[in-house]
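TEACHING EXERCISE
Course module: macromolecular assemblies
Task: Read the component lines below, then compare them to the predicted structure of the full complex.
Student: A.B.
Group: 4
Components provided:
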Amino acid sequence: MAEQAVKGEEHDYTERNKTAVQADPGKKPRRKISKDQWVALGFLAPSFILVLIFVYGFIGWTGWVSVSNWNTLVPDFSFAGLKNYIYLFNDYRFQADLRNTVFFTILFIGLVIVMGLGLSILIDQKLKGESIFRNIFLFPMALSFVVTGVVWQWLLNPSTGYNQFLAVFGIQPKWYTDTNILAGFEWGSIEFGLPVAIIAVVIAAVWQMTGFSLAMYLAGLRGIPDELREAARMDGASELQIYKKVILPMLMPITVSVVIIMAHISLKIFDLIYAMTGSGANFVTDVPGVYMFETTFRGNYYANGAAIAIIMLLLVAVFIVPYLLTNRRSGN
Amino acid sequence: MAAFNIWKPIKYLILTIMAIIFLTPIYVIVVTSLKPLDEVSLANMWALPTAIDFSSYSHAFSELAPNFMNSIYLVIPATLLSALLGAMNGYVLSKWKFKGSELIFTVILFGMFIPYQSILIPLIQFLRNIEMYNSIAGLVLTHVVYGLPITTLMFRNFYANIPDTMLEAAKIDGASFLGIFRHIIIPLSITGFVVVAIWQFTNIWNEFLFAVTITNSDSQPIMVALQNLSGSQIVQWNVQMAGALLAAMPTLLVYILLGKYFVRGLLAGSVKG
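Instructor-supplied answer key:
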């Protein structure tokens, strides 16, 4: 299984390593460090310092910008308190973005899992030509979200594309140009509900990312020994029961991984939507990633842009931090 | 099993229908890009061209060629550097563990998941200050730094599968940290380098957010140019499709030729160590 290959061994290399080397290259060691261990730290230090500055330092800097008054072309780092955040949460566009992100994320993750699991089970049936099918479902993963966006804006264009086939059934969805909000109710200054237009973007994103969950599930299915299914069959379980009671529970860790990775892709999504639809009428396909880009780099509202970025980071952290910490703990 | 025979054609049918749906975008790209201008219309999207016409490719190529080269100059050094640094980190974090090395690994790994919007404003200020803004070199630096978490993760997991006994033996023979890296680890990492390089190549080639914010006009990589082409009202739709195919070609070729390694990278990068 994918997981076992990746977990790796955890035991220390030698006794000397255990006692001698300190976590922080800057701290004074308590015991003598061998030359090799100094070289090892020298290998790691440049990357670690780069990450500390470019990831953690810059996040702190962005946080600082987000509470500043820098909403013009000229940097202004005077303290503004939470003004920019308060502005955003009262902003029509940002409220719409949060709504769109919620529905995009749920639909996107749900469909990627259902499609990936379904197709991987079908491919795992020892059918002839399974590698052809696998390659067809996986190739969109090699494409850029920009390419996907450019192509799908035509496929889901209301006046052409798939609508030419759907005309046979007499339905002509308006896809990403639809401004309806399904099951909507007043929430802040927007209507909260499923924006129909977001479905078009979800379809394009699912087309691109299904290969990911397919590959993950396929690796998982290949890791389940045949004897296990055989044993369940001997006990009189039907094929459906085997999947429900034996195989799906065993694939649970993979599902968790897929959810986490898809969630972080979906919460920060920018290029697909920027290339395919843009913000849309009434911001029906707008997301924080697009708003951040436009307000910062097209409108020079740097502090507002920084505040959006920090909110995006916090949303992602809600998924990622517990995941990283539990992985670390189970690794030890 | 009688049931098996009934279900088999149904399984094929479902897979085939899904495969056809998955391929429709490629069909539209190829068919449209080969049409002469007078056959390009919304109503005839799905129709085959009556004659094969490569003029949309020559048009797209003349528009995108400089940006295509920018992407080449970006992706090669960025891929090699981030892979090399990842190998160095992975070696230490898997074979020379020390107190706190797991924490350092987690600290590095977190960088893989952050939305890059959250570092973009300082990054651009920083690149302006060191006069690397709006340059390929600035993008190379950016991709090397933010590629570190994933390449470190991939190499660490890769090296975890090399038995420690092998290193112990070399150490008893007097091999040093560097000696082991050069004579044992590097020769054993060829597959690892291929997997990581393919992954980084694909990601950097396809990346858009850094590309569109750090560069403008002459130094823009291909994906920004493609986006500009598709956003332009005067550029015909067949040219956009030809441009999309040109932009996608390098990563598609890598996938077709080395798909096995691409999938290995996908699996290795997706599950945290």
